[in-house]
Write a structure and sequence with these properties.
The protein has two domains: 137 residues, no CATH class; 178 residues, 3-Layer(aba) Sandwich (Rossmann fold). 38% of the residues lie in helices and 15% in strands. Helix 11 packs across helix 13. The longest helix has 16 residues. 41% of the residues are buried.
């Protein structure tokens, strides 16, 4: 049995390839949510919609009707007939992915899949649309995290795919981001989601989840910046017993343009700590969005980040934060703050 790799690796030296079979095998909740259950989803009493969402999703997952609350003789709340699809509508950091993984684990299904939108569309690109339909036809459950509304072509492909699966009995659970030009705080996207998947909108029941970003509850509001000496020690300490990466921020950003986002998870495979030198603000939106996708995968894998230069929560310009991808950038900032504190 081979031991786990140790030492320092440069992510810019990695050019991961992923086969269709490997993509399918990876359609499970990320390690962070291996043990996610409805019981471990901690609701906030200040936001009753969290408990209401939890109750509805337990019912959706086959756990029966929500239990009545209140007095002994209080009439049980009538549970609406659940549609084949549920859409979890809420801001970042309210636990949508935790609940999505809880659905996956709770549904007593033989065939069920969990993946980000980008993983499903990458699979279509790798094996073709028809083979993807054949693969998923008859599946009991499809969980789609971060349903992308940015690309009309990809949105159409996914809408068409779920349109073929629902009639065969597949149930769906999804979350989404905010589409381009959706200005404002970008907290809720239900109407955008339903409009973009109009052909399948009637199959989804919207479940709204209010709340504050849980990642910001326990940490300061900014990403941690370390001095050069502290950075060197952190990378060396991690590399003594595991694998640590060491790259310049600019070098990583340039390399991400050469790797499909569906392969970013392989880019950080086996890495226990990500080191980034000389962080600087980004001036290109395409590069910024690729970095967001990278941060999502690093957060899924719960890999700590140590960085020098500018604070990582400052790399997105005010213009970017005021634009149509605002919600993506704010989610990435939230996750970067958490990972630099971990």
């Amino acid at each position: 049995m081979s031991s786990a790799p140790v030492g320092i690796v440069h992510l810019t030296d990695r050019g991961p390839q992923v086969s269709g079979a490997e993509m399918v095998a990876a359609l499970v909740p990320p390690p962070q949510f291996d043990g996610a259950t409805f019981d471990t989803y901690r609701t906030d009493a200040h936001f009753p919609s969290q408990q209401e969402a939890k109750d509805l999703l337990i019912a959706f997952s086959g756990g029966g009707a929500p239990a009545a609350r209140g007095g002994l003789f209080r009439r049980a709340k009538k549970v609406p007939a659940l549609k084949p699809g549920v859409y979890l509508d809420g801001g970042f950091g309210v636990g949508k992915t935790h609940l999505l993984a809880s659905i996956y684990h709770a549904v007593p299904a033989r065939r069920k899949y969990f993946g980000s939108f980008i993983e499903y569309t990458a699979l279509v690109g790798a094996i073709g649309y028809q083979k993807t339909v054949e693969l998923f036809r008859g599946a009991d459950l499809l969980c789609i995290d971060e349903f992308e509304l940015d690309d009309p072509g990809d949105t159409m492909v996914m809408t068409r795919l779920i349109g073929e699966l629902v009639p065969t009995g597949t149930r769906l659970a999804a979350t989404s981001n905010t589409p381009p030009n959706a200005l404002g705080e970008g907290r809720f996207a239900a109407q955008d989601f339903l409009r973009e998947i109009h052909a399948m909108a009637a199959s989804f029941q919207t479940i709204r989840i209010d709340g504050t970003d849980y990642r910001q509850r326990a940490v300061d509001g900014h990403a941690v910046v370390v001095a050069d000496g502290e950075y060197e020690r952190a990378v060396a300490d991690a590399a003594a017993s595991a694998l640590a990466s060491d790259d310049t921020f600019g070098g990583l950003i340039a390399h991400l343009a050469q790797v499909h986002p569906s392969r970013y998870i392989r880019l950080i495979e086996h890495v226990a700590l990500i080191g980034l030198r000389d962080v600087a603000p980004l001036d290109d939106q395409s590069a910024a969005l690729r970095f967001v996708a990278f941060v999502d995968r690093a957060y899924d894998a719960q890999i700590p980040i140590r960085a020098t230069g500018a604070a990582l929560d400052s790399v997105f310009t005010d213009e970017m934060l005021a634009g149509g991808y605002r919600k993506k950038y704010l989610r990435a900032i939230s996750r970067l703050v958490a990972l630099t504190h971990s």
